[in-house]
Structure formats: C-alpha cells, structure tokens
Design a protein that fits this description.
Helix content: 55-70%
Structural class: alpha/beta
Number of helices: 8
Largest sheet: 5 strands, parallel
Oligomer: single chain
Shape: globular
Number of strands: 5
Radius of gyration: 16 Å
Distance between the termini: 32 Å
Strand content: 5-15%
Strand order of the largest sheet: 2-1-3-4-5
Length: 188
C-alpha cells in the first residue's frame, strides 16, 4: 500500500536528506531539490492514496504550518506538511498549508477561514517562546474560538512536556494516528 511506501520509504529518505544537509554532506540546493522531488511523488500518488479508503468528507478542516523561525529547514518541513496533508485528506479532512506563520497572510487566513485544528511543526526547541506566542495569537484571532492546537516535530517527540508549555492540546508523533488525534482534539 502507498501508506507503507510513504512511511517506510519516503519519510526515512526525507530524514536522511535532512541529516546529510545538517552534517554538511549535501548542499542546501541539492537537499532542497531532493525534498521537492519527494513532495512531487506524494502529489503524484495523491489520487491513488486517497482512493485507498472510502471515507467521504468529514466536514473538518486542518491548517498545517511550520513553527515561527523554521525557515532554515523549510524543505524538510514542507515535505512533512504535504505528507500530513495527504493523511488528513485521505481521512476526509480539508487541509490548508500556510508556510509562514509570522506573515500577515497567516493572520488573515485564521481570521477569515474556519479551521477545526491547527498543527505546528517545530524542528528544535530554540523558538518555543515564539511558537507559544503564535499559539496564543491563533487562539485569540481564530474565527473558531475553540480551535484545537496540535504540535509535532523533534522538539516535542524528544520532550513531550513541552506541548503544554507552548499551549498545545496534543502531540502528533505518527502520521497514521494524526487524524484520530485531531478528531480527539476537536471533540474536546
């Protein structure tokens, strides 16, 4: 199944590319192009992946975004956000990816569009104060006053207690369980 290809081939390949780039074994341009190609594979396989289940629209929307200041690792994060979006769509969710949570477009989006959950990706713990401020802004400015906030990424998988510190409602640690966790957050 494509889920196996995604989780056991593409995700490890993206992690390996990130490792190569972080350890200066691969330059930024080549790592970015390779990650873009992985995203393109996900997009190419999207119709078949979403057809693997018979779930219709559940009427829920998710906004996926990197944490503030995560631009240095944007290729890896965008691949993760695109892949997360695929799992949401397969399970009947409408998804929106906003690449810059510090932009005015981001604030306009959360003010004018209804989202049931927002998911932030943080690669490290250096910008957690900024992420907490972003989460407070989302809760204050969102057209959905009960928006659920999920967080994911190495910063949280290594230290799950940080979820509450930044104001999140749930930690996402597995693409397979992501929509179930999102549904639980919505049900709160």
């Amino acid at each position: 199944p494509l889920e196996t290809v995604y989780l056991n081939l593409l995700v490890p390949a993206a992690r390996h590319l990130r490792h190569l780039w972080m350890n200066d074994e691969c330059d930024f341009a080549n790592a970015t192009l390779a990650l873009w190609r992985l995203q393109q594979l996900v997009r190419d396989f999207s119709p078949a992946f979403c057809a693997e289940t018979t779930i219709k629209s559940v009427g829920l929307r998710a906004l996926l975004t990197p944490g503030p200041g995560e631009k240095h690792d944007i290729g890896h994060m965008m691949f993760g956000l695109v892949l997360a979006g695929e799992f949401f769509r397969r399970d009947g969710w409408d998804t929106w990816i906003e690449p810059d949570p510090a932009s005015t477009a981001f604030i306009d989006t959360i003010r004018t569009q209804w989202f049931d959950v927002i998911e932030f990706f943080a690669s490290g713990d250096k910008k957690l104060d900024d992420l907490a401020a972003n989460i407070r802004t989302v809760r204050r400015e969102s057209s959905n006053r009960n928006i659920g906030v999920m967080v994911c990424g190495p910063a949280f998988t290594e230290r799950p207690e940080l979820v509450l510190l930044v104001g999140g409602d749930a930690l996402v640690s597995d693409f397979n369980q992501e929509t179930l966790q999102a549904q639980s957050v919505v049900n709160l």
